Amino acid sequence: MRLLPKQLCMIAVSVALISSAQLSSAQAAPLVEPTLHIKPAASGAGRVALTLDACGGKTDTRILSALVDNKIPATIFVTGIWLKRNAEAVAIMRAHPELFELENHGGRHIPAVDTPQKIYGIRSAGSPEAVLAEVESGAAALAKTGEPAPKWFRGATAEYSPSAIAMIRKLGFKIAGFSINGDGGSLLGAKETARRIAAAKDGDVIISHVNQPTHAAGEGVVQGLLALKDKGMTFVRLDDADGTGNHGTTD
Length: 251
Ligand SMILES: [Zn+2]
Known about the structure:
By secondary structure, the chain is an alpha/beta fold. It has helices at 5-27, 61-69, 80-85, 87-95, 128-144, 162-170, 190-198, 217-230, and strands at 36-38, 47-54, 74-78, 100-104, 118-119, 122-123, 152-153, 174-175, 180-181, 205-209, 234-236, 243-245. Helices cover 38% and strands 17% of the residues. The strands form four sheets. Strands 2, 3, 4, 9, 10 and 11 form a six-stranded parallel beta sheet that branches. A two-stranded antiparallel sheet has the order 1-12. It starts with a helix and ends in a 6-residue tail after the last strand. The relative contact order is 0.21. The site of zinc ion (ZN) has 5 residues, from loops.
C-alpha cells in the first residue's frame, strides 16, 4: 500500500512519542535531597555548622556583619556568578579566614541533575557533561579568588540525581546536605526563620542564604544565630567538623 505523506507523518510522530516515553521512564530515577549532620560535641551546649548559600544576586550585609561582629564562623557556598558581582563581600570574607570557609556552589547555579527537568522552576544541567562543567567551573571561579581549593560542593536547589552524586564524589568533592532548612530558600518571614534556626540541636547543619539583602528572612537568620550563641552553642565550619551525609554524599 502507498502511504500518504500525512500518514507517514503520523507514524513518525507516534514513533517519537514512544521513544521519548521509554526514555523518560528509563531515566526517571527520583531526585534526592541529602541530609548532613556533624559529629555532636562531646560536652557543653553543643555545636552546629552554619552553611550559607550565595547563589547569585547581592550580599546580605545584615548577616555578613553579624557574623563578623559576633565572631560566628560559617561555610559559604558561592557560585561563579556571585563571586563576579560581590568583590567587596569576598574581600571581607577573605580578611577573616578564621571565620569564613568558601566552598563550591557551582559556576552558574544550575542543579546537578544529569537528566533534563525543572527543579523549583530552575532548568537542570540535563547531562553528565553539563553537571561536570557546573562543578568544575565553580571550583575554577573560587581558585581565581586565591581561596584554597574547595572540598565541598552543594548544587543549586540542593537536589541531585544519584548518578550525579556519584560523579561529583569521583571529582573529589564531598556533597553538602543539611539537617535544618533555616530560611526556606530565603522565602520565609523573619520570625519563622529565627524560630527554625534557634531550634538547632547539637550536630545540626543549617542552610540559609546570604544573597538576598531585601528579604525578611535575612533578619531572622541573624536573630536565630544570636539566640543560639546566647545558649552557648558553638559554631564550626564543614572543614573543621566530622560531617556525615546520606545517599553516599560523604563516605
Ligand atoms: Zn543556591
